[in-house]
Design goal:
40% of the residues lie in helices and 18% in strands. It is built from 23 helices and 16 strands. The N and C termini lie far apart (60 Å). The structure holds thymidine-5'-triphosphate (TTP).
């Protein structure tokens, strides 16, 4: 069965897998690809230090493996295969690249390095298209890489040696095989599992799609780059290629326009499959209409939050519309409209007994819950809404682009405006931090530090999580006086609170409190380059050799930068920086052994150690 038709594109070609890896052979043949196996003789000896990133090294090795096979086959028969695929898998922990162990001691060294920690597995892949011209070999190379994060449990020496003696580690990068007994060592995996096993099949199919079906301008509204087009989409495209119907029309019948995944953020012009016209009229732009109305839905949510509707229904629901209107001291007709829209938006449920919260509303929209996002809704309504009404003039007049098109930080300037505004801002940050603090605190093992200072730590949510996770850690929250003054209102009791103190100050002007570990969570993105360097250099001067700097920022790997949330936020807060940019920033300011890890779905975290100046 060929599930992904792009694999079928290679059906009549002479495809060679330049790899001895049985795992790669299995993954590709399971996917329906037919190929010959010719292991590469390229010696994996490129100088690692000459590559800017580990994945550049893996991609180059993959390319050299494939090119070696292509040229050997060409020399032998004066005929080259059509396509040669090469791959190289490496394990990266800190700045160290691990390949296959040379002996048991080497395997032990590798596994000890990985023990209890998170690491990255990169596979570089090269797809080499070959052709023979006048006895000469011409090649065209496309290459890409995939990264997967893997965390090992804390493992005893005994277990490590038992595993090594099983013989499994010897032919595998990093000295383990996640697909077999090595799977028992692994606590979690973020990303493509097959990438760890040696071949990122999903990304490979996307790459083939890119190569074999480059989108025509008129197709761009239908096919999303980031996904492997659905089978139906491909069939349409193949038909077109074979002289079939026009793409606009081929979407008819409710098949061609399907999105490849369940992401609701479909391209706005993507036709709704069920509603396409059958007579040459353009399909209904359902996604676009949804975008046109998006602001109305936000305002309904904000208004319901402001009226404390979800609080009322959490405690007293279900309630009839008239009773809700009475309690809100609002007009009955208007209240009923609002309630019905909330039902349509999935925020409320309506039965014969009246209106009640949906689960998501009770969890995230009632104000007192552990996971409440009320503060964020309130802040977006009171402030960000207004900022976005200035988008048109800001684009025309050209604001400071380092701060996004709107030229203002969402938070800027309001801390000093009024106590109420400061509180609103703090509630918004508090809401957001609750979603991410645990991931930030546990992305790395920070138990070697005994004191930490969370710069711009606001209500102390992350400080609390750090103190909870590391029982020896004393945590200082350093923030502007107007913030620390109000932070008391956000504190909950608990033993870890004794190890948290709030210190008022400005991190651009005042001496930073002493600490082994400095933390900047969602701070750097808000500042333009000059301020950012000033802040990092102040931290670097305060941090003792061996101390650490932990930076948490919105996840912004290349593939994510184009997605909806970071893009919208970038309008008011500037373009998010990638993990590599953060790694470079820390290195530039005197931090070494810089490691990057994913912290949940929203953030990435970077940890560096202060070098001896
Ligand atoms: C981390 C990890 C790696 N591996 C394997 C995948 C690769 O086969 C190997 C990494 O070595 P590679 O040098 O990438 O590949 P290889 O030597 O096996 O084959 P060739 O060079 O001929 O293409 O490690 C696993 O099987 N499971 C794992 O969990």
């Amino acid at each position: 069965m060929v599930l992904c038709p792009v694999i079928g594109k290679l059906q009549h070609k002479h495809v060679v897998l330049a790899s001895a890896s049985p795992r790669r052979q299995e993954i590709l043949s399971n996917a329906g690809l037919r190929f010959e196996v010719v292991p590469s003789r390229f010696k994996e000896k490129l100088r690692k230090a000459s590559f800017a990133t580990p994945y550049a090294y893996a991609m180059e090795t993959a390319k050299q493996k494939a090119l070696e096979v292509a040229s050997r086959m060409h020399q032998k028969d004066l005929r080259a295969p059509d396509v040669v695929i090469g791959a190289d898998t490496i394990v990266v922990v800190g700045a160290v690249i691990l390949e296959k162990p040379v002996d048991k001691q080497d395997a032990y060294r590798m596994l000890s390095r990985l023990n209890g920690k998170e690491h990255s597995v990169f596979t570089g892949v090269a797809i080499v298209h070959c052709c023979s011209k006048d006895g000469r070999l011409d090649t065209e190379v496309s290459e890409f890489y995939e990264e997967t994060t893997v965390k090992f449990s804390e493992l005893s020496e005994e277990l490590l040696w038992e595993y090594i003696n099983s013989g499994e580690p010897m032919d595998k990068a990093g000295g383990y095989g996640i697909q077999a007994q090595g799977g028992m060592l692994v606590e979690y995996v973020h990303g493509d599992f097959l990438n760890v096993v040696g071949f990122p099949l999903n990304h490979f199919c996307k790459e083939l799609a890119r190569l074999y079906y480059p989108p025509r301008p008129e197709d761009l509204h239908r096919v999303r780059h980031a996904s492997i087009p659905a089978v139906d989409t491909f069939e349409n495209l193949s038909d077109m290629e074979a002289g079939g119907s026009d793409p606009g029309q081929s979407a008819e019948g409710g098949r061609g326009g399907q999105q490849a995944d369940g992401d609701r953020s479909q391209a706005p012009g993507a036709p709704d499959a069920a509603l396409n016209g059958a007579d040459g009229r353009p399909p209904l732009p359902a996604g676009l209409l949804e975008l046109m109305d998006g602001f109305k839905a936000s305002k309904v949510l904000f208004t319901a939050c402001k009226l404390k509707l979800f609080d009322m229904l959490k405690d007293q629901g279900p309630l009839k519309a008239v009773d809700i209107a009475r309690k809100l001291n609002a007009c009955a007709g208007g209240t009923e409209w609002l309630l019905d829209v909330c039902v349509a938006l999935g925020l409320l449920e309506k039965t014969h007994r009246g209106y009640s919260n949906t689960e998501v509303a009770t969890l995230h929209l009632a104000s007192d819950g552990e996971h409440s996002l009320q503060g964020l809704a309130e802040y977006n309504d009171a402030h960000v809404w207004g900022v976005f009404t200035r988008l048109g003039p800001a684009v025309q007049e050209g604001a400071d682009q380092t701060r996004g098109a709107l030229g203002v930080m969402e938070e800027e300037g309001h801390l000093s405006q009024s106590r109420e505004m400061t509180l609103q801002f703090m509630r918004a940050m508090h809401s957001l931090s609750k979603l991410t603090a645990h991931h930030v605190a546990t992305a790395f093992d920070l138990s070697r530090f005994t004191s930490a200072c969370d710069l711009g730590g606001c209500t102390g949510i992350l400080a609390r999580e750090l103190a909870q996770e590391y029982p020896r850690l004393q945590v200082t929250v350093f923030d502007l006086p107007e913030v620390t003054e109000l932070s008391g209102g956000f504190q909950r009791g608990g033993r870890q609170t004794e190890r948290i103190r709030f210190v008022p100050g400005d991190f651009f002007k005042d001496n930073l409190p002493e600490a082994d570990l400095y933390v900047l969570s969602r701070i750097l993105q808000d500042w333009p380059d000059d301020k950012l360097h000033k802040l990092l250099s102040r931290i670097s001067s305060s941090c003792k050799p061996g101390g650490g700097l932990l930076v948490a920022e919105a996840a912004a790997e290349e593939k994510e930068r184009a997605s909806r949330r970071p893009r919208l936020r970038a309008l008011s807060a500037g373009q998010p920086r990638s993990p590599d940019e953060h790694r470079w920033l820390l290195q530039r300011h005197g931090f070494q052994d810089v490691r990057v890890a994913r912290a949940g779905d929203l953030l990435h975290v970077v940890l560096g150690t202060r070098a001896v100046p």
